[in-house]
Hints:
Number of strands: 11
Largest sheet: 7 strands, mixed
Structural class: mainly beta
Number of helices: 0
Strand content: over 45%
Radius of gyration: 13 Å
Distance between the termini: 40 Å
Amino acid sequence: QVQLVESGGGLVQAGGSLRLSCAASGRPFGSYDMDWFRQAPGKEREFVASISWRGTMTYYATSVKGRFTISRDNAKNTVYLQMSSLRPEDTAVYYCHTAPSGSPEYWGQGTQVTVSS
C-alpha cells in the first residue's frame, strides 16, 4: 500500500511560480518511480512529469518542458513539482501518482492550481 498526499496548490498570476509537494507513506519510497498528472475541467487526465526511483531520470510532457521541474527527496519521502512561467492553460487539479512493479497504481487526492491571466 502507498498513500500519497499532495500540497502546495493555489492561485497564482500568469508568469508566476508554485511548488507542489507529494508526501508518500507505506511502501519504502525509494523503490518506485513517481509521476505527476493533471486534469483540467472538461478534459482527460494527462501526464505532466515523471522521475525514476533514484531521481536520475526525468521525463516531461512537451507542454511543460523547460518550465516545470520534477525532483524527489527520498529521505523525506517526498516528490516535488516546481512550476515556473505558469500559464492560464496550466490551470488544473494536479495529482501525484505511482505504479510500483507488481502492485496496483496509486493516486493522491489532488491539489488545485489556478493561473489567472
